[in-house]
Amino acid sequence: MKIILAAIDGVNLLLKYVLALLLLMMTVGALGQVVVRFVLPLLGFNASAAWTEEVARFSMIWTVFLGAAWALRHGELIALDLVTHAVPRVLGIAIKVLAYLACAAFAVLLIILGLEFAEIGAIETSPVLGLSKWYVFMSLPVGAALMVMNILGFLLACIIEGSDPRGALDAVVD
Predict the structure, then answer these.
(1) 150 with 73: CB under 8 angstroms?
(2) For residues 122 and 116, what is the distance between their CA atoms, to the nearest angstrom?
(3) Cα 20 from chain centroid?
(4) Per-residue pLDDT, 12
(5) What's the sign of the alpha-carbon dihedral 161, 165, 171, 172?
(6) Domain ranges in the chain?
(7) What are the angstrom distances between the C-alpha of 20 and each of 15, 17, 27, 78, 115?
(8) Among 144, 166, 138, 153, which Cα is nearest to 68's?
(9) Which of 6, 50, 101, 135 is 20 to 30 A from 80 in CA distance terms?
(10) Rounded to the nearest 5 degrees, what angle is found at the Cα of 140, between the Cα atoms of 59 and 111?
(11) How far is Cα 19 from Cα 82, in angstroms, rounded to an integer?
(12) 128-166: b (≥16 Cβ within 10 Å) or e
C-alpha cells in the first residue's frame, strides 16, 4: 500500500510543477494584456495581442481543476470540521470518511459528464488560437480523476499512518 501512496505522491509532485507552469502562463498572459492595452498606447504604439486573453483564461481553467485535486491531497481545501470534532471520535471519523467518499462519488460523476462535455467541445475551436476546445474541456474530467486519486490517497495515508482523517481542530485564541 505504501507503493501506491508513493505513486500518488509522485503524480502530485509532477502536478505541482504543472500548476507552477500554468500559473506562469496565466501571469504572462494577463501581464501581456495589460501592457498591450494600457502601457503601449501611452508610448504611442497601438498593438493587439488577442492571444493573451485566451492563454490566461485556458490556463486559469486548468489551474482551478488541477489545483483543487492537488489541494485535496494536502488538506488545503476549506472544510468545516466543527461537527466532526464535536461528536464522539469514532462517529466524527465515520462522518469525515463518508464525506470524502461522497466527494469521490461526485468526482466520478464529473469524470463521466466531463468526458461527454469534452466530446461536444471537440467540434469547436477557440477564436484566436484555433485550439480545439476539447483540450480546455478535458480539464474537468482530468481534474476530477486526480481528485478521486487524491481522496483515495488521503484515506490510504490515514490508514497507513494511523492518523485522524478529521485533521487538527485549530484553537481560537482570544
Answers:
(1) yes
(2) 10
(3) 12
(4) 95
(5) positive
(6) 2-161
(7) 9, 5, 10, 21, 25
(8) 144
(9) 6
(10) 160
(11) 31
(12) eeeebbbebbbbbbbbbbbbbbbbbbbbebbeeeeeebb
Q: Give the three cell numbers for residue 55.
A: 492563454
Cell of 142: 482530468
DSSP three-state, residue 132: strand
pLDDT one-digit tens code per residue, 115-154: 999 999 999 999 999 999 999 999 999 999 999 999 999 9
Q: Which residues pair with 125 in a beta bridge?
A: 132
Report the residue count for the chain: 174
Q: How far is residue 51's CA from residue 128's CA, in Å, rounded to a whole number?
A: 6
* Lookup: cell for 25: 502562463
Q: Are 132 and 125 in contact (CB under 8 A)?
A: yes
**pTM, rounded to two decimals:** 0.87
Exposed/middle/buried for 127, CB within 10 Å: 0-12, 13-18, 19+? exposed
Amino acid sitting at position 67: G
Tell me the three cell numbers of residue 168.
Answer: 487538527
Q: How many CB atoms lie within 10 A of CB 98?
A: 10
